[in-house]
Amino acid sequence: MDLDSLTDLLKSHGVKGSVRQLKKSLYIRGTFYHSDGAKKRVEIPLSLEAYDSNIQLIRDRIHDFARIYRKLNCLPETFPWQHLEVRDQPTFANAIAAFERDYWEGKKRTSETERTLKRYQSELHKLKSIEDLPLSVNDLVVTINMNSEPDTRKRLEMCKVYKRMSKLFFAEGELKELDKIRGKYQAKQRTRFDENAVVEAIDRLYTDSRFGWLTAAQFVYGTRPVEAFTLLPRKNGTAFAINCPKAKAKHEKFPLALGIEENVYDPDPLIDRWEIYKVRRDWEWNLEEKPYDAVQGKKFVEAWRKWWQRNSACEFDLVDMRHYWGIRSIGRQLDARHSSKSMGHSLEVHYRTYNSTYAEIDAIKAAADLRK
Q1: Could you tell me which of 25, 40, 28, 41 has the C-alpha nearest to residue 68?
Q2: How many CA atoms lie within 13 A of 176 on its CB side?
């Protein structure tokens, strides 16, 4: 539904306001005179759902609203289509409650969806001190500036959550200040690691009954840590795993095996050395018989991470292990389309994350060409 064109229609009749959509319902929002001479910000339901098949009825109702308001120079007690429904300006507490209701609309309660909501609630909790005040974009901007630095992931996440909540009450155009302070967060650029140190650590640890195989397999296939609990290696250079992209549905993927530079990235020496085909792990999940449990997933990944930090003597995390696969794929000159599919993210994310590595490889190639 093109709300901008409907708002333009309202304004063409000389009435300042906007047409908003909440779920499938349409409202006219604005600050209008009432019969007692007071000017109040209200939302007037059009009592029509936002379907293209209703477009002519919607336009006629906007025309009727403008005609009646201009004739009376105030809002009537009722409109022809229904009783006037005046919405008081919500407080921050009202807005947070509405956000949580909206979040669960059409969702199943699972450990994963509840965990996501808790992450959002951690940002909303920062509004606790002003929860009784009327919802305002200015107060949101102040809270964001007090709790995050410009151009950081924290700033980006706060802006996303607060804007999602505010869109339940404000038109898109009224939220420009949130967009202005959002900044330009840049994902951490991934650079080269000490390959020998990583391989030596896995050589020592791959026989560990709980996390040894997981670590070796993650190095070879480049999965996210939680995906390693679904990984099933195949003897054709690929594996089966379940892709877990952020805020998207889980689905199958087929990671590619990749070795190290010393072996010209041939994975077979590592696969044999670390006995990759002998799957060994305490916990696993899939899309059918054993669906993902976010609480269990977090528990096992955290235990694995602490084990790795305690025993590896390496300075990087399990997520860095995955990114080292991405860097090796560039050294191997693997097509970026195949690399991004194997890692389970978009081509855009792949180039953005490994931009500095691609730049380095390009420079090395250019220098080699100059020496010819």
Answers
A1: 28
A2: 2
Q: What is the pLDDT of residues 171-205, one digit of tens each?
A: 777 788 899 998 887 766 555 678 888 999 999 99
Place of tokens 């996501």: 116
Report the candidate in 13, 4, 6 with the shortest Cα–Cα distance to residue 56.
6
Cβ atoms of 237 and 256 within 8 Å: the answer is yes
By three-state DSSP, how is residue 245 classified? coil
CA 99/CA 124 separation, integer angstroms: 10
Nearest to 287 by CA among 110, 44, 155, 159: 110
Chain segment 269-283, per-residue pLDDT in tens: 999 999 999 999 999
Is 0.85 topped by the overall pTM?
no
Kindly calculate the radius of gyration of the chain based on its CA atoms and give it in whole angstroms.
28
Query: 195-370 maps to which CATH number?
Result: 1.10.443
Every domain of the chain and the residues it spans: 3-83, 92-181, 195-370
Nearest C-alpha neighbor of 322 from the set 234, 244, 209? 244
Largest Cα–Cα separation, the chain: 87
